[in-house]
Amino acid sequence: MKALGRHVLAEFYGCEFDTLNDIKLVEKIMVNAALEAGAEVREFVFHKFSPQGVSGVVVISESHLAIHTWPELGYAAVDVFTCGDKVDPWEACNYLTRGFRAKRVLAKEQKRGLIFETSPQAAQAV
Amino acid sequence: MKALGRHVLAEFYGCEFDTLNDIKLVEKIMVNAALEAGAEVREFVFHKFSPQGVSGVVVISESHLAIHTWPELGYAAVDVFTCGDKVDPWEACNYLTRGFRAKRVLAKEQKRGLIFETSPQAAQAV
Predict the structure, then answer these.
(1) How high is the ipTM of this complex?
(2) I need a labelling partner for B29 at 20 to 30 A (CA). Which of A34, A121, B8, B18 fits?
């Protein structure tokens, strides 16, 4: 069984208010994380909320990175979704951990799009 | 313990090639799913891949919706991430299931950003 995508869901705790509330900084860290992991950036959109918080997404050829920040709690929800073998989502996740200086990270990988593969040999054997 | 966000990860199988490969249709279904669930749409970006496939994200005030399609496999990876009590991610997910006419859907909800809450009463009791 082959997975089409790898999706890392990460919870970043203990980040600084000013980092998580700075839309330009959040955008820069997210885009750089994608580039650092070898992804091809297609588009990105970021939005600043009032009184605080930033949401944003980087669409890459290999899927996407997303973030939602709660500066008042020092928390950010981070997603790194990649397909193909070229980009390792954990490379981007590790870059983000350093970029946001998260004191505690809970992260796990979820396989997306499990597809059953049959080889001609397997089909013949049936 | 309170969760800041609810994240539905859904795998749509058995969708039609032409639906999953039509960027304008995919965009319309995704944006309408957000609106149907009562979300406030902030921005959206969609990208068409060659020879096939669409990736896109809708940033909403309550977080985001994302999709990546593999038309040749009839498969789409769908995410609906919401925060707050106003929007139910499953409403958007159900709309998307109908919109993409998925024959089989595997979906689960992941809580995001678990925060320990202490009430003044609890603090006094300690």
Answers:
(1) 0.90
(2) A34
